[in-house]
Amino acid sequence: MSDEDDIILADLSDDELVEQMMDDLYDGLKEEIEESVNILLARGWTPYDILTKALVAGMTIVGHDFRDGILFVPEVLLAANAMKAGMFILKPLLVETGAPRMGKMVIGTVKGDIHDIGKNLVAMMMEGAGFEVVDLGINNAVEAYMEALEKEQPDILGMSALLTTTMPYMKVVIDTLVAQGKRDDYIVLVGGAPLNEEFGRAIGADAYCRDAAVAVETAKDFVARKHNQMAAH
Amino acid sequence: MTNALAKMLAERDWILADGATGTNLFNMGLASGDAPELWNVDEPDNIRTLYRNAVNAGSDLFLTNTFGGNASRMKLHGAENRVRELNRVGAALGREIADAAGRPVIVAGSVGPTGEIMAPMGSLTHELAVEMFHEQAEGLKEGGADVLWVETISAPEEYKAAAEAAGLAGMPWCGTMSFDTAGRTMMGVTSAAMAQLVTRLNTPPLAFGANCGVGASDLLRTVLGFADAGAALPLIAKGNAGIPKYHDGHIHYDGTPELMAEYAVLARDCGATIIGGCCGTMPEHLRAMRNALETHDRGPRPTLEQITAALGGFSSALDGTEAAGDAPEPRRGRGGGRRRRDA
Questions:
Q1: Shortest Cα distance from B208 to chain A (angstroms)?
Q2: Considering the domain boundaries, does residue B48 fall inside one?
Q3: Tens digits of residue pLDDT in A112-121
Q4: I need a labelling partner for B61 at 20 to 30 A (CA). Which of A48, A87, B215, B284 fits?
Q5: B257 within a domain of the structure (yes/no)
Q6: pTM of the model
Q7: ipTM at complex level
Q8: Number of domains chain B contains
Q9: Which runs of E-coded beta strand occur in chain A?
Q10: B212 known member of a binding site
Q11: Rounded Cα–Cα distance for residues B223 and A143 (Å)
């Protein structure tokens, strides 16, 4: 590594620094992201602008390359890790400054399913997109989902299953929501390797999301529609 | 020890493996979310039926009902202390059915992924992964499995850990990965990279290949990738019977027996020696596959166009084995030339 390759982050202009942060997120450079977030804060940027213009914008690019088969899980995990480090600095400041919220999601893998790699990716990418995420972890029975929905009052319920043996359990949860008259209170998104759009429709979910990047786009789309509907009432 | 699979590989130029485990057990009443492995002890007759159905449909090799039988997975069901028992019983039931078959049938001890991400990206260390796989391998060995069958792996680190565990247990093994993300595994492994990986292991498998994934077409493209990478070991093709559809509370895969029969013949033409199905592959599919393999002569290597014409389109245009110039460009980052300021 030669000296001429070194970049002094503090010497970059705002625009250059934001560009650099997108590169650093893409490369999963956690310490560089932390430093850049602190530099922008010191320059008087609002936490919300740093979140949306640098971190969310950067993670959107990561998401697109993941969706298009250019990046894979290891790279996305590194990027999300760097994003998380930046978010850790911004989170308390966002609350203090009353920044607008994108929405809230409760997410977990269904009963019997330990495979949480995809679910974790969705949770990280959703946070990366500015959503508040309540992660129920793995192996959730219908009661656990219902309790969390009651307590958290999220906009979105996300369920994930990787196995043929656990996929049908998503319908158990959705059927319970219907039986309790709560189905329309939430946007229900499902995902997992063996699933497809047709399955999502058949079990009564709002959408099937092929991967974490698609989950974020779909969530944004549905939340915007929900807000429009509420405004129309 | 006798190595029944090595013997069969030496004598035969194709071997029919089995089909689905989960899909079949559901049809016998397994509830969604329950651990199939517990049925080895609680409902042994159902497991015998599962194995017997594969053998009667013509399988030369079947997998034991132990896919999720590692400590990490069994912990979900509070059964992490029963790993050895559940694997031993799962393999012993298999031994019983295979020995009664009246022809050589291989009992392959299924070993699925831990479901965890390995260090440094995740928390599962190499040592712990080896320990978990080793524990499972010893149970399968005690129960009389002929060979360990590592499957649905996506991380090279986990594949290596399973290889090491097989070595520790002194068991021959086979190992397949699941190529379900743009022609690669979830962790980004290409068919060419896997072909390389198996040549670098201290305890190489008897055969390697692909299972599950997205569909029959994708799986065969992956097999062609292994062959193009100069794979010297026998290749395994275990693809799903189409894609999952949901009817009346059950999952059905939409691939017909006729489609799977075409897939089996094409798999052999692509260079696969051990050919079977995965999710959704029922006994009627296996019968059609057996019949097709017996009645068709081996043909020339199919082109990608011939594969999609027979079995449907690929899930992605590329699979990571294309020339560098054809690969999509990263939209950001500095890749290998990672520049950073001095701390």
A1: 22
A2: yes
A3: 777 777 888 8
A4: B215
A5: yes
A6: 0.87
A7: 0.79
A8: 1
A9: 104-109, 132-135, 156-160, 187-191, 207-208
A10: yes
A11: 43
